[in-house]
Amino acid sequence: MSKLASNLQIDSARLWSTIHDTAKFGATPKGGVRRLTLGPEDKLVRDWFRAACEAAGCEVQIDALGNMFALRRGRDMSKPPVGLGSHLDTQPTGGKFDGVLGTLAALEVLRTLNDASIETELPLCVANWTNEEGSRFAPAMMGSAAYVGDFTVEDILSRKDAAGISVAEALDSIGYRGDSAVGTQKFTSFIELHIEQGPILEAESKAIGVVDSGQGVLWYDGKITGFESHAGSTPMQLRRDALATLSEIVLAVERIAIELGPNAVGTVGEAVIAAPSRNVIPGEIAFTIDTRSADAAIMDALDQRIRAAAAEIATRRKVEVALDLLWRKPPTRFDPKLVDAVEIAAKELGYSNRRITSGAGHDACNLNTKMPVAMIFVPCKDGVSHNELEDATQPDCSAGANVLLHTVLALAGVAK
Amino acid sequence: MSKLASNLQIDSARLWSTIHDTAKFGATPKGGVRRLTLGPEDKLVRDWFRAACEAAGCEVQIDALGNMFALRRGRDMSKPPVGLGSHLDTQPTGGKFDGVLGTLAALEVLRTLNDASIETELPLCVANWTNEEGSRFAPAMMGSAAYVGDFTVEDILSRKDAAGISVAEALDSIGYRGDSAVGTQKFTSFIELHIEQGPILEAESKAIGVVDSGQGVLWYDGKITGFESHAGSTPMQLRRDALATLSEIVLAVERIAIELGPNAVGTVGEAVIAAPSRNVIPGEIAFTIDTRSADAAIMDALDQRIRAAAAEIATRRKVEVALDLLWRKPPTRFDPKLVDAVEIAAKELGYSNRRITSGAGHDACNLNTKMPVAMIFVPCKDGVSHNELEDATQPDCSAGANVLLHTVLALAGVAK
Question: Which of A53, A331, B30, B321 could form a disulfide with A216 if both were Cys (CB 3.0 to 4.6 A apart)?
Fold first, then answer.
C-alpha cells in the first residue's frame, strides 16, 4: 500500500458534524432521534443520503425493499464491490449513533478517498439497509434478511405496522420502492461499524471491539385470553386476570434468562391490554418476548423453558396463553480472515482493542450467511442505546471510522 | 299479617314480559340496551314508566334533577313512605337487568298489591334515580348523590357530557326537569333490588343475596420510571426494567388482597408502556390500582401494604415508583334491622340465600347516609354486567321481586 494510503485518516470534524447535522431528521426534545423506518423522517434522511453519495461521485441504486446502495467505481469493475455501511432508521426514542455511525462513517470513508484521489482496485459500495430496528415492522434487520433470502420479498412487502399499513404501502408513500431486484447487488465482503450497545469496551477502556460473533435471537408474539369482569364484584379466587398472568410470564422470562446466564438475556418489551379500564379486570393482552444467546444450546433451553413456564402459568390461572415464534436467528460466527483484517487495522493504527461478541443483532449478522463479513465496535456511554441518552465520543467514532477505512483499503486494495 | 298478604306472590310472567317489553327502548342488535341517561331512549322509558305508575294509581312527582317518585298512598299518610326502586338508564352497551330489574320489580310490587286490594299502613314510593350509570355524565349515581347532598343541584346541572351538553339542557330537552326540589321526597326506609354483577350467588347456587354492606374503594394512579435500554446487549443484572417492576406490583396487589381476603379485592386495570418496542427494555409505565373492602380497617391495611410493597420493589430494582391516591370512598354498612327484614323475607319464602357485600356502587349506598337502607341481590349469568351479554333467569328475578314485596310489606305494614 502506498505511503499516502497507509497514513490516511478520515476527517474527524467532518464525520462528527455530519452525524450531528443529520440528527435533525427526527430530532427529539431530549436530544435523541425518532426516525421510524419508512416514515416521513426516514424519507428526509434517505433523500439527504442519496444526494450526499451522488455528490461523492457514487451511483445510487434502490432495491424493491428500499435498501440503498451507493457504488464507488474501482479499477477492476469485473469483481463485486467491498461493502460497508449500516442503517439510518432508529427506535421510537432512539439515539444519534445506532446505525447512523456505521452509515455516515462509510460515507466519510468515500469522501476521504476522494480527497486523497485514491482509486481502489475493487469497487466500494455503501449500504443503508431498510428497517434494521424492527420497531415499526417485524422482523428487525428486514432489508438484509430479505437480501440473503431468509424471507421472500412478497412476504416482507405484506408485513403490517400497528396502524395496519403494509411495508409496500409505506415504501410507496415515501417513494422508496426501488427498481432493482432484492439481492442483485453483490458484495465481495462486507464490513459494518457500529456502537457496541453494551458496557464492555467502556468498562475495559478499549477504543475498538473486533467483533468475531453475534447472539442468536428468538422473537415471540404472545396473546393471553382471560376473562374481563368487574374489579369490585369479582372475588380474587374467581378471577381469570390476563395482566396477573402476564406478570408471572414477565418474571419467568427474567428468571430463566438469569439462570441460563451470563450468556443469555430475555425481555418482554411490549404489552397491550385490550379495552383497559381502571375498574375492569384485564381480559385480554397481546405481548412480545425477545430472548438471545450466542450459544445455540442455550437458545434451545430458553425456548423450552419459556414455553413450559407459560403453559404452567396458563393452566394454573385457567387462562389461554398463545406463544408464536415469530423469528429465530441462529448465533453468528464472523469470517476469521475479515475479523483478522479488522484486528490488524486496529493494531496498525495503534488503537486499544479486544475481541467481542455482539449482543444486538445487526444487518452484518444476516449478510454473514452469504459472504465474508466482520464488524467493528466502538464504546458507547454506559453501554446505553435504543435511548435518547445514547452517546459516543468523537475520538472513539473517528477511531472506528479509521479502522473501517483501513480494513476496506486492505480488502479492496489500492490501484497502482 | 293476613293470610292473603303472607302468601302473596308477584306475577312472574307479568314482571318478565314488562322487563322484555321495555327493553325495546334502546334495544341493541346483540340483545342489549343502549339507554344513556336523559337521552331520547331514556325519555321513552320514563314516559312509559310514569304512565304505568299512574295506571297503578300512583301520583308521580319529578324533582329538579329528573329523579322520579311514584307515590302509592297508605292508611297513615302522616309518615314518609317506604321507598323501593333503582334506575332505568344503562351503559352504552348495557343489558336488560342492571337497574331495570329493581325499578320494574318495584312497579310489579305495586301492581300485585293492587290486584290483591291490599292497603299498606305506610305509603310506598317507587323511585327511578337519574344517571346511576355515569357513562354520559359524571359522577355516577348522580341523582341519589345530589338527593343526599353530596353535590349541590347547581353543580350537577352544570355537568356536561362529551358533546358539551349540560345536565340542565339534557333535562329540558326531554322535559324531565321537574318542579319538586331535590331532597324533599322523604323516605322511612329504602330497599333496592339489583342483579349481583358478580359471580358469587351463581357459583354457590343461591337465589337471593342479602346485601349487608357495600365496599369502600381506593383508586390510585401509578407511574414507574426505570431505564430504557437495548434488549440484546444489556446484561440482566444491569437492567432497570419498568415492566418487570410492574409485574411484581401486580402480583403484590393480588397477593395482598388475597391475604386480607375474603373481604378485599385488588386490581391493576390499566398499564401503558411509554414508547414500547419488542427489543427495548421498558423504561416507563403508567398504571392504575383499584382496591376495595367493606371493612375500613382492611382498606387501611390494603393502602399501607400496597404502598410498602411498591416501595420495597422500587428500591430493590433501582427504579422510581410513584403512587397517587385519586379517590377514597368509605365502606357502606346497611341498616341491620332492614338487612334482617330482607333475610327473614327470603327465608319465609324458602329461597336459598346468603349475606353478601356489594362490590359495585349503587344509589342505595348513597341513600344509606340519610335513612335506613338495604339491598337484595339476585344472580346474573357468569357475573357479567355492563355488557349486552348480561343475563338473569325469570325464576331468580321473580324470587328477588317476591323478597322485595315481603320486605316492603314487613316495613310498611298491612292496614287492618
Answer: A331
Q: What is the pLDDT of residue A2?
A: 65
Q: What percent of chain B has pLDDT over 70?
A: 99
Cross-chain residue pair B359–A234, CB shorter than 8 Å: yes
Neighbour count for residue B317 (Cβ, 10 Å):
18
Residue ranges of B 99-158 with Cβ closer than 8 A to chain A: none
Q: Which residues of B touch A290 (CB under 8 A)?
A: 231-232, 278-279
Q: What is the mean pLDDT of residues A180-187?
A: 97
Count of alpha carbons within 13 angstroms of residue A199, beta-carbon side: 9
Strand runs labelled E in A122-173 = 124-128
Q: Dihedrals φ, ψ of A396, to 5°?
A: -65, -45
Interface size, chain A vs chain B, as Cβ–Cβ contacts under 8 Å:
212
Are the C-beta atoms of A206 and A297 separated by less than 8 Å? no
Window B:354-393, CB contacts with A under 8 Å: 358-361, 383-386
Could you tell me the pLDDT band of residue B6, with boundaries at 50, 70 and 90?
Answer: confident
Range A276-302 average pLDDT? 94
Q: With 70 as the cut, is the pLDDT of residue B2 above it? A: no
B265 and A234 within 8 Å at the Cβ level: the answer is: yes
Q: Nearest Cα to A93, choosing from B266, B59, B279?
A: B279
Element (H, E) at A324: strand A320-329
Stated pTM of the model: 0.81
The beta-carbon neighbor of B269 closest among A198, A277, A386 is A277
State the Cα–Cα distance between residues A409 and A6, nearest whole angstrom. Answer: 9
Backbone angles phi, psi at B140, to 5 degrees: -70, 160
Please answer whether residues A150 and A140 qualify as being in contact, where contact means their C-beta atoms are separated by less than 8 angstroms.
no
Q: Indicate whether A354 pLDDT > 80.
A: yes
Give residue A3's pLDDT.
Answer: 64
CA–CA distance, B323 with B195 (Å, rounded to integer): 33
d(CA A283, nearest CA chain B) in Å: 10
**Contact A196/B231, CB-based, under 8 Å?**
no
ipTM of the predicted structure? 0.84
**Chain B residues near residue A247 by CB distance under 8 angstroms:** 246-248, 250-251
Would you call A230 and B385 a contact, using CB atoms and an 8 Å cutoff?
A: yes
Q: For residue range A11-53, list pLDDT tens digits in order.
A: 999 999 999 999 999 999 999 999 999 999 999 999 999 999 9
Distance, in angstroms, between A194 CA and closest chain B CA? 13
> With contact defined as beta carbons under 8 Å apart, do B312 and B277 qualify?
no
Q: How many angstroms separate the most distant Cα atoms in chain A?
A: 84
